[in-house]
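Structure, all two chains, one model.
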Amino acid sequence: MKELKIFNQDDFPKYLPKLNSLYDDLFSSGKGFRSRLIQMIGKHLKLNDRQELLLAQTIEFIHNASLLHDDLIDRSALRRSKTAAWLKYSPEYAVLAGDYLLARVMVNLSRYGNLRLIQYTAEIISDLLEGEWIQDSLVRDWDVKLKQLDQVHDLKTASLFKWCLRAPFIAKENYNEHLHQTLDEMGTLLGMLFQRGDDLLDFDVRNDEGKALLGDLKSGYLNSFAAFLSKDFDDERKQRLRKCETLDDVKALAGEESFNHSVQHFDEMNAQVIGLYEHKARSLEEFLDVSERGLIHDLSGLPSLLYFRRAK
Amino acid sequence: MEYITLKKGDAEFESYLLGTFSEDRRALPVETFHGQESGERVTFQIVPVSQLDVPPWWKVYFHSCRPELAPLTLGPSMAAWLNHYSSLAQWTRWPSWFALLGIFFLHTAAFLFNDFQEHIGGVDRVNRRRGSQVIQKGWVTAVQMRRWAWVNGGLAVLFGIPAFFNAPVELFVICALAALALVTISQSWGRRWGLCDFAIFMLFGPLLTSGIALASFSTFNLADVLLGLALGALTLWVIHVRQIEFLFRSKPEMFRTLLGFLSFDRARLLVISEAYSVVLLQLGVAVWLRVPMFFILLTLAVGWPLLLTVQKIYRATSPLASPLVGISKWALGSHLAWIVWWLLALGSIWV
């Protein structure tokens, strides 16, 4: 897969050096998973270079804008092992830089001229912001249930996955309603799996990338695994959970064996979600040309990668 | 694990929804998208009946009849009965008992039909905390549920007809008004302006208490109507609490309610103000009916679950906040407490 240059200083005003420097920091790290997903789909749909770059930039700009805002809202000091933008520059710059990225998305898409793509992108940005807003209301909510979190994640996390799956088809002007419904449903499941896999990292489960532990819990947020683990806790244990400083504290509270059982049950539950996703991926066959059907195989491998963090 | 996704237009769609596609397998709806639209798509998980942990039929039937909601219909009916303590002699007449039995089977038939309808319509498939969920769990098929509903509906008519002849003309008017209320509830145009809510209030309130009084004793009085106002308002509040619990999931048009049209904050304010008005209304009617002072003093104890419900709503910072989870159970508990209070209070006047 060829390397795409998502951030190009020439695309941004030169008289705003701080903005460029902030973006340089932001885009120089990160896995660029979403833009790679676009590339993977684009390869099967035979998107041209311009379309591929536009879509890859769009999704990365939206994603990074949400990170800039997210870090400020959560007061996170680190982003991808570097000082977060709001701390390194200022909260004002972080907000403006995020807003500017979203504005650039609209400028770029308007130039391309596909109205459906513009409309869909605007809807996704709205969903993302709604999700952020609702999520903030769940901070320090120690009784939150997995179902509630799934609803937030559908707006906040899954919306971008849905966009990645659907936007290349929209760019190719394939508007088949049933195809888009299926892709939308797959995006919901991918988002859920990604978020749940990510939430497990907080508890050092398959944490190969060495993400800081208990970040969510320490910021007062019960993530999906924490909600699953504590679903049968009484009030007293919930009080103790919120005060846990280390993973050993959590394991001591839940019981080592019970903790491992919870991880196993969580995995089993998500394996069912993966089964459902694979069923949907197979059903794409009727909507794709013969030359495009390789996409089904590539898409089928995503859930394992996102949830179990390893290729199938 | 076997899955199948079907669109509304597919030939097999209905047979999977109704459960008639196979004798020994059940189709459990896992996901529903675009419910009540022409583009509806449902993904079913296909499970052999032998793999399902199905309780005995009578347990499933009992669960489907929604006993926890019985006080909403039977409570006002019993209250209307007790309000006619002067008609003690008539209690021995069969039609008056038939009226209560008729209401009981009307309640069960309504909820069984509701389970069937909302499974087919998609509401209970999308929101897994609605309805009894026995169809969605594969305990019965939708067709079996519809059959149960017809049997219960038939029993309601069977018991209702002798009671109907106690006051045919007046009850005809009551039934016509009830039918009008049901039509209003089923129409989406009535939702924005609160017409559905008014219809629910009438149906579970004055129409129910007056109807029961007429069917049982061939007469009704102002006290029946006042009791109906108090208990109808209480039921409407319970329904509003339930709506606020599911407000976040009410985004699609299919779940639109009056509270859905108001914003969260305004909906919350409405439900809280309603709670206080309901308490004042109960007390006002109780004073008017000359309920003994002892019961008036008991309102503090009876009002406790209601106050807790209000406090939870007040604490909710968003429609997805945890204080709202399971809040309708508190509202139902509150309703039950008030119903018991009313029955004891009315019984004490009678004694």
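Chain B has a mean pLDDT of 87.
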